[in-house]
Design goal:
Helix content is 4%, strand content 43%. By secondary structure, it is mostly beta strands. The chain folds into 2 domains: 32-230; 232-397. It has a 13-stranded parallel β-sheet, with no helix packed on it. A 9-stranded mixed β-sheet has the order 1-2-4-7-10-13-16-19-21, with no helix packed on it. The protein has a 7-stranded parallel β-sheet with strand order 23-26-29-32-35-38-41, with no helix packed on it. The protein contains 1 helix and 41 strands. It is elongated and about 70 Å long.
Length: 397
């Protein structure tokens, strides 16, 4: 790592004063440390400047970390235009701030997209951001090869990368607040804040959302005040629970979600499906969504002017397939499966493996086909449900 300094003439003029005021074992370097070369070994960035409005370090360029980068509480790092910090597979980042002395990574200019952001490739379990603020990044993708996405923080699936995010703030990105690539791993996630990001607060897959918490805030004037979910095949060794987000922030489903293992959904969760997207519960999986009268679980379209997404399709014969106090709306835009179940429906039960579903106290509405289509040997047990505005009827055939 090469460290240079600004304001050299001032330094030379100040030499007599520094000589007389410092002890023999102190080194005082005025101005900011400017980091211009890769970090090839283990480094500690210390809190050099008492004033939190002044940077301790300035990063100029795309800096790659191959060792362990430890950032102490109170450190402020400013990034020059189009600069970035890349934590390679061999490296790691430990940025452990405190409430009174957070770590700050921001642009030299406080303009959204001024710098690129932080990209993590490292699979090490020591990768931690705690009480860290990252702002004004997302100007361009840090890597246009592996993870071509603009965000304050991007975590790549190559290794796959791992990260813990607690008590952090992600703001003023010209893209996403945080982007977690499909199969990248969130080790811990709590009490984070997302605000003033041009795109969604966060984007990840349907496995990673199980690590999210009800204490993080996703609704601070972002382009989308919620979490986007990319296309995912959920095939885990243990069952997942999808949590409800704070302030009724929704999930937006950008691609089909296919469950090959079990998923529970917490009361109050909201899912908005993009056009022609769907949720598929495969034979080996199950789907258990138990809401309450005051906190129903909602599955709807991101477009609600007309039916816009396909719906929920069950192949699974599991007795754990239950939906209670749920709402499924604006589905049936297209046949739910043009091979096995070529019908439009908000919810479909296929007889390939004799799918089962217990549906109670739920609202099924505004569909361009059936409310529920029950194929051949599939089994629907239902009571207390309300059906309305369904083009082909409530329960078919």
């Amino acid at each position: 790592m090469q460290l240079t300094t600004r304001f050299l003439p001032i330094f030379l003029l100040a030499l007599p004063f520094l000589w007389t005021s410092c002890s023999d074992d102190e080194t005082v370097i005025p101005g900011e440390f400017i980091i211009t070369e890769n970090i090839d070994d283990d480094r500690i960035l210390e809190d050099r400047v008492d004033n939190p409005n002044q940077p301790d370090y300035v990063i100029d360029g795309d800096i790659t970390v191959y060792g362990e980068l430890s950032i102490e509480p109170g450190v402020v790092i400013e990034f020059e235009a189009n600069s970035s910090l890349i934590i390679e597979v061999e490296g790691s980042i430990v940025a452990d701030g405190t409430t009174s002395k957070p770590i700050v990574m921001t642009g030299v200019a406080k303009t959204p997209g001024f710098w690129k952001g932080v990209l993590v490739y490292s699979p090490k379990i020591t990768n931690v951001l705690h009480n860290v603020t990252i702002s004004y990044a997302g100007g361009a993708a840090v890597s246009d090869i592996w993870f071509d996405i603009k965000a304050n923080l991007a975590v790549d699936a190559y290794s796959p990368a791992k990260i813990s995010l607690t008590n952090c703030t992600f703001s003023h990105s010209a893209g996403l607040g945080v982007a977690i690539d499909e199969n990248a791993i969130i080790q811990a996630f709590s009490n984070n804040t997302f605000s003033d990001n041009a795109d969604a607060a966060m984007r990840c897959d349907a496995v990673a959302i199980a690590e999210l918490d009800g204490g993080s805030s996703f609704t601070g004037s972002n382009g989308f005040n919620g979490v986007e979910i990319v296309k995912t095949f959920v095939d885990e060794q243990t069952d997942l629970t999808w949590p409800a987000l704070k302030d009724a922030a929704p999930y937006r489903v950008l691609g089909d979600i296919e469950l090959r293992s079990g998923v529970y959904v917490q009361e109050g969760a909201i899912f908005q499906f993009d056009p022609v997207r769907m949720l598929i519960v495969e034979v080996a999986g199950f789907f258990n969504a138990i809401g309450t009268a005051s906190k129903p679980i909602v599955f709807t379209g991101s477009v609600t002017s007309a039916p816009s997404w396909k719906g929920i399709l069950f192949f699974s014969p599991s007795i754990l397939n239950k939906m209670d106090h749920c709402e499924v709306a604006f589905a049936g835009s297209d046949p739910i499966n043009d091979i096995w179940l070529d019908f439009k429906t908000n919810i479909g039960l296929d007889d390939y493996a004799d799918a089962k579903l217990e549906l109670t106290n739920s609202i099924i509405r505004n569909g361009d086909g059936c409310g529920v289509y029950v194929d051949g040997g599939a089994t629907l047990t239902q009571s207390g449900n309300t059906f309305s505005n369904l083009a082909a009827g409530d329960i078919c055939p």
